[in-house]
């Protein structure tokens, strides 16, 4: 039987350092997944936030909620940083919307 996993969706942090601290704390607390929402307000940009979280953690599964932008555009900046995430893929939602 697959173990039960817990995930969190976070969209705000005052700085990169605070964001990285949040991601590390989630991992230390045993959470398995961190997702970032996308919205037309003052939330974090999902792809740079996930790339930062990937570089700062070792086990968290990372992904987005629904993206409001064109799906192909935000993913190109994440490609070069895949080696920083120890091979973990960044997962995105399969729908668009707001």
Gyration radius over CA: 13 Å
Strand percentage: 5-15%
Give the CA-CA distance, first to last residue. Answer: 35 Å
* Low-pLDDT windows of residues: none
Order of helices and strands: EHEHEE
Helix content: 25-40%
**What structural category characterises the helix and strand content?**
alpha/beta
The quaternary structure here is single chain
Explained architecture:
With 98 residues, the chain is an alpha/beta fold. The chain has one domain (7-91). The protein contains 2 helices and 4 strands. It has a 4-stranded parallel beta sheet with strand order 1-2-3-4, with helices on one face. α2 links the parallel β2 and β3. α1 (16-29) packs across α2 (46-56).
Write the layout of secondary structure elements.
Blueprint (H helix, E strand, L loop, with lengths): L6 E3 L6 H14 L3 E4 L9 H11 L4 E4 L25 E2 L7
Parallel strand pairs: 1-2, 2-3, 3-4
Helix pairs in contact: 1-2
Short description:
With 98 residues, this protein is an alpha/beta fold. It is built from 2 helices and 4 strands; from the N terminus they run E-H-E-H-E-E.
Descriptors for this entry?
single chain; 98 residues; alpha/beta; 4-stranded parallel beta sheet; 2 helices; 26% helix; 13% strand
